[in-house]
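Tutorial handout. Part one gives the primary structure; part two gives the three-dimensional structure as C-alpha cells.
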Amino acid sequence: MSKSYEVITNRIIELLEQGTVPWQKSWGGEQAHPRNLVSDKKYQGINAFLLGSASYDSPYWLTYRQARDRGGHVKKGEKGLPCVFWKWLETEDKQTKKHKKVPMLKHYTVFNVTQCGNVNYPTLDSQLQEHEPIERCEKVVHEMPNPPNFDWNTTLASYQPSTDTLRISPLNKFDSPEAYYSVLFHELVHSTGHNSRLDRPSMSNKIVYGSRTYSNEELLAEMGASFLCGHTGIENEVIDNSAAYIQGWLTKLRAHNTLIVKVAGQAQKAADHILNKSIENYVNGA
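Part two.
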C-alpha cells in the first residue's frame, strides 16, 4: 500500500512543481472527463484529477494490455500515468482465527490513446463553448507592461519562469469566461515574479513543493488574482473556488502570521504591476 501512496504522491508533487494544480481545473467540460477506452467508464476520485491534468487532447485511456488486445501498441518512449484502486484481501486473525477482509491500495499504469499506435478511439466533439471575452478583463491582460509570452495551444495552465511563458487553454475551452480569467490572472501574478519584472526570489530560485517559499508564492498568486477579479468585477463568480484555494495554502502559513501580511503586500504589488500602477511607494520585498 505504501508504494501506491508514494507513486500517487510523487505524481501530485510533480504536477505542482510544474505549476499545475491537479484539482483546480475549470476547462474542458463534461466531454473531457477522463475515461477508459474499453469500458467507457469515467475515472473517479484521485484518478480523475491526475489524468485530467495531463496535456492530451483525448480523454480516453487504456492499459498496455488493453492496447495490445485491440491490435495496437504503446509508442516507443511513451510514459504512462498511475491509476489506483482498492483491492480487498481476505486474512485470518491469528488470535481469533476468524477471517476478515481488509482493503489494500494498489496501482497500475495507463496510457492516453494518443500515446498509442493502431488504436481507434472516438474523437471529441470539436464544438467549443460560445463565450464572449470580457472587455474589462481583456484590457487588464493587454495593457500589462512587459507581459510574458503566451501559449494557448495547451490543455494545462501554468507559468514557466525559464522561458517566461504563460500556458493556458483558450477561452472557449473553459466552463465560463470568469473561470478563464481567474486562472489567467493567477498565472499572470506568478509571471510578475520574473527577474525582468518584480524579481521575486520565490520565482527566480528553484522552488520545492511543500516548502514555505512555494506556499508563499501560491498564496500570493491566488490573492493577487482575487484582487484582479475584484478590479474587473468578476469576483462573485469565482470567489468560492478562490477562497477554498487560499484557505488551503493559509494552513501552510498559520504558524507564520507575519508572513501572511507580507504575502498580501506582495500580492497587491503584483496586481498593481499588472495594472501598471505606480509602485514607487512600496518597500522592496514588502
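Part three, for discussion. DSSP finds nine helices and nine strands in the chain. The first strand starts at residue 35 and ends at 36.
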